[in-house]
Amino acid sequence: MTLIGRGMSRPDATDKVRGEARFVDDLAFPGMLYARVIRSPFPHARIRRLNLTAVAAHPRVHVTVTAEDVPGENVVHVIYDDQPALATGVVRYVGEPVALLAAEDRESAREAEALAQVDYEELPLVSDPLAALEPGAPVVAVPAAAEGKDESPNLFNRMRLLKGDVERAFALADAIVEGEYKTGYQEHAYLETQGAIAVPEEEGAMAIYGSLQCPFYVQGAVAKVLGLPLAKVRVVQTATGGAFGGKEDVPSQVASLAALLAWKARRPVKLVYDREEDILVTGKRHPSVVRYRSAARRDGTLTGVEVDFVYNAGAYQTLSSAVLWRGLLTAAGPYKVPNVRIVGRSVATNTVPNGAFRGFGSPQVIFAHESQMDLLAERLGIDRLEIRRRNALRVGDETACGQRLKESVGILETLDRARELSDWEARLRRVAAFNATHAHRRRGLGVSCVLYGVGLGAKSPFLDKAGAYLKLEADGSVTVAVGTVEMGQGLTAALSQIVCDALGISPDRVHFTAVDTSRVPDSGPTVASRGTIMSGLAVLDAARKLRARILDVARELGIPEAEVSIRLPKIASSFFMKNLDPAVEGWARAEPVDWDPATGLGNPYFVYAYATHVAEVEVDLTTGEISLEDYVAVHDSGRVLNQATASGQVEGGVAQAFGFAVTEEIVEKDGRLKVKGFTTYRIPTIRDVAQSIQIEFVEALYSPGPFGAKGLGEVPLMAGHAAISRAVAHAIGRQVSTYPLSPERVKQALAG
Amino acid sequence: MTLIGRGMSRPDATDKVRGEARFVDDLAFPGMLYARVIRSPFPHARIRRLNLTAVAAHPRVHVTVTAEDVPGENVVHVIYDDQPALATGVVRYVGEPVALLAAEDRESAREAEALAQVDYEELPLVSDPLAALEPGAPVVAVPAAAEGKDESPNLFNRMRLLKGDVERAFALADAIVEGEYKTGYQEHAYLETQGAIAVPEEEGAMAIYGSLQCPFYVQGAVAKVLGLPLAKVRVVQTATGGAFGGKEDVPSQVASLAALLAWKARRPVKLVYDREEDILVTGKRHPSVVRYRSAARRDGTLTGVEVDFVYNAGAYQTLSSAVLWRGLLTAAGPYKVPNVRIVGRSVATNTVPNGAFRGFGSPQVIFAHESQMDLLAERLGIDRLEIRRRNALRVGDETACGQRLKESVGILETLDRARELSDWEARLRRVAAFNATHAHRRRGLGVSCVLYGVGLGAKSPFLDKAGAYLKLEADGSVTVAVGTVEMGQGLTAALSQIVCDALGISPDRVHFTAVDTSRVPDSGPTVASRGTIMSGLAVLDAARKLRARILDVARELGIPEAEVSIRLPKIASSFFMKNLDPAVEGWARAEPVDWDPATGLGNPYFVYAYATHVAEVEVDLTTGEISLEDYVAVHDSGRVLNQATASGQVEGGVAQAFGFAVTEEIVEKDGRLKVKGFTTYRIPTIRDVAQSIQIEFVEALYSPGPFGAKGLGEVPLMAGHAAISRAVAHAIGRQVSTYPLSPERVKQALAG
Question: From B510's CA, which of A143, B225, B234, B620 has a CA 20 to 30 Å away?
Fold first, then answer.
């Protein structure tokens, strides 16, 4: 009986529920020191003098590190290597690391941090991305490899997607709608803050234990900053309390800093951020400004879109080019659009460098494209769900970037099923009735459709691969190692199901070793909803190879195939006694992709996931407060390997979407983030999202995926926020164009 | 330029010289407890009552464990599973574990240990193996699978090797000599005592960090005592400060005890023996009694040998059957002997269970067979080196057990080269001249020849395999994992040379990960001088597979084969960019062996190593003290991969041989070992063995071995002690038949 598709509980659940999982701050090593980072208090300044004499003189301080100490390259290696590990000469954002110290205990480290004497000369700053593009704006940095230097020294990247004849489409359109949409910061708010322990190992090697998504990124970064061969750097992922993209790029910085101290001290060094520090100095979702024009025929058929969007990258590039790229390829939505002009720009400012966040540059443009669809529907008098239906991509269609979709296009099924589950037409009537009978409360319905290119795509196709190691033990139990991580999303459950299904064994006989970069080949990052599909394929490859060997031995033993699973211990023992190799190496690589940066056209992703969400909200007209009343989420992620963890992803994504659209806000002023931990940064609680969420999966199988699976993790957030914000607009009868929809903004909209 | 054969320095050397290697007692884990073992003070007793109330009441004691707590099987899994992890009902040797405790600190653990209340009823004991075979002797145990129950309840194993017609050979012999030879305990005296830390890991798994030779033995033992699947037990070898066989079987016990505590406490537990405890309660070299008769023709040609030998196994079997087996197959020496009758018995006594020790049951019979050769030489008036030469095995000959030697038989070359290097005939004259001119000092020359069956042989052919994991990193550095351990013998250097040679890279680009059972398949134990040959073959297999992939990529890149090594970083980068699998799994299994337990005949080993040693000693006739004056060691271990580490093995082996033959003694009385650490147990110092040791290798290549290598580690000790003891006999003109040749025994021999 196959486990595939069933709701097997997560192997990591028991430890986490019991409090026995070991997070990085639960770990210690003999002789371990505690690190603090001496950071810039200014958004833009010249370092005139850096004096650590008093720090080093603290009796409990063991070591200090400045840029001069760096044995390798003084960079946080991500994509462009423009960010120094430790600032030299100039600091470019509040919180930028300037120097490091490690002390015998945490408290002393804090005390010593305050003893650093750094003289700064403040420089003019720019924190707004549009202002940064103006001529004469302060220059944040000289970008290492800017695509757009001609336009502005602060332009990190500029990307275009050009298809068809947009002018003509707009000239001939029956309807044109336009809008400007803005979104703010979103903080990842993972339960566990950033942390890493660097442990010098034998023979000049360095081990990193950390809370992270991308062990191989960290391996590369630490090797670079220490000047070591990759084989001398080993990264072990510890139990990770949430990530959401926040542990994609940032841990390379955290680990590099810890490693520098450990390298100099020749002792283990722990660097764990506290919550306020974590929120202030680590990258978030890119604030955005999206200008969007849509052209359609009378029947609602889109004929063209024109999009210009700008992302605030912060002081260094980190992943902004990749974030921008995904925004570019998502901006037209899951719709057929024959004529397209999209231009995206990521801009340097004197603010914290932003990085990966669930959705990765797509939620910003989704807010825009779904708002636009509603505007068109309204303009043309078409039902909002129906207009999406008419434009939705189907097998054989071409995406905005010209990719012909050969299979696995489930958007229409998600729309139709969402319509049924939400009882769309009847619910519209009920909402109208409610609104007619309530003076100070308004209800509204919103629908949102998204497409999501699974995996890393043609921006970095060399990352879409994965390795796995499987070993049949002499008692028939199985050891598995993979290179992608469990961070709460349920990956281990899904992979365990694949192994169990392929080998016909029960989950308690399978053990996943801690993810360690020295165990398996670079399997890319655990991002882009690629864990299940890529590691799933690698594990499946290994399991099938092992299965073939098992069947060979079974035949020799005269065991019929039907009894192989039940008699696996005997077969495994025979492997052992006959000196047969019980270990296999699995490998997977994604289907080829291609993309032309000149036009933005091509086949940028090997497959897409889809979703339709329908939200019902209620707005208190007196307070401006928004509550979520009912929710339907229908996803096409291909084959769902584990119903329980997949549903968990959707529930969590909807909560995070509510936060993005409604409650979560960080005000930035003069390069300073006005936020004080979770006191002022309001993440949704169970009371905000405890309403019924109906979740269903329609499974448009992707034939090269493991059992037809695609990817899921990021999609619920992407679809969720727009369903909610569109429901708010529907409730109050006003467009809303800036996230978050705080009570103040709602009341402002009502007044406008 | 190949590294093979060169004296590359050991990758682990720098850390060890600097004191930066991390031995098990250097490690700690958060929440770690310290264990003590409550042990039997009696050699044989019934446990009437076990009361740990006072132990548990100690304020710093966290947990106690008795046999009732054991979740799996209450055994120390080695071969027969006859030894309980914790005694129930009866204790059978002084030091047998009865219960366990773990406390918050080491001192409290010691205090609490003294609080255990155990009532014992003493039972009659037997500690002499010959006495134990007498009818009516106290019964030590009921052996689990005794081969010889008919003879005595205390007989653990009886093995025979029967070939030809021994009666006739002796009847027709021109010369017959006979002797009885006795050897005592030898303590391993590794620098680092036994130690393990058991660490409960996530998802119900247990990790063991320990000083050990056989990680997979420990994995199996811990899985059995905890009742876990093998996949849930991971054993990591920490830097190991010497082993010599002492960390073959004993760590399974140490780790099982630590694991029981950690399992119950759900916290890490460290169990490290102190020196006195280690010497008293861990197995040593089996004390022996060997009766030997040899028959020869007038020209010195051996026509028959008859051997009866008895090993004192101690209270449990551990590895005694395997130790006995190697004794059986070594007893005839490296000589052609047409008629053979050898009977070996291992006997249970109420003493510490003996186990593996460098040479593994062979030094005892080598003492005998080399003494016999000298007796024959003397009887027949043939030069001692010459008589060995005449009998030495050659290619095409048959060993005592009927194995036809097809290749790689270098004994004659070692003999001839040792004769040259020692200047044997001239030296004999010089010695005679010295003795003629000194009243109270006598010099003597001894020669010793040995053969050594490499690997585990037909007693456990399922252990002679090995796995390796190699990964080409994106920068061209290489990560390697193997399943056999570095314990000071230089394995990592040899394996590194193989990898570097196969891939054409320099050693600083290769990194060996810590040995961890979850990384590679069960690769058998690191014993029987099998590390280089078996892991060498596995690494070579992996490296050749990787090399083939590298060449494919090089061809695609247009890189000629001659430039592949120098341009490996570029090729590795291409692997990465093209998503090619850079990981390979290597596997090796030994050539088949066979052996018939009924006759003792067959092909028990796939190949043999050989050596001839020549020692010159001086005996002070007044004090009975022996000093080593000069030494020649010539070995055939096939191809020597690393001259430096191979020479180190020989030097160390000669020192340990000197200890075995001359200085090291433990007196046993009524089941109690009379020894107090190194105060009374005298291991040789640099002053005992600092004399010139000339070392050479003749390389009779073994074609299936890596570059023709065989094995070396145990052979120097095996050959050394007999060269030294025979030199003593030559010096004093008296036979010596009991080890160690303490001053008292020498003077006794002189008086006799």
Answer: B234
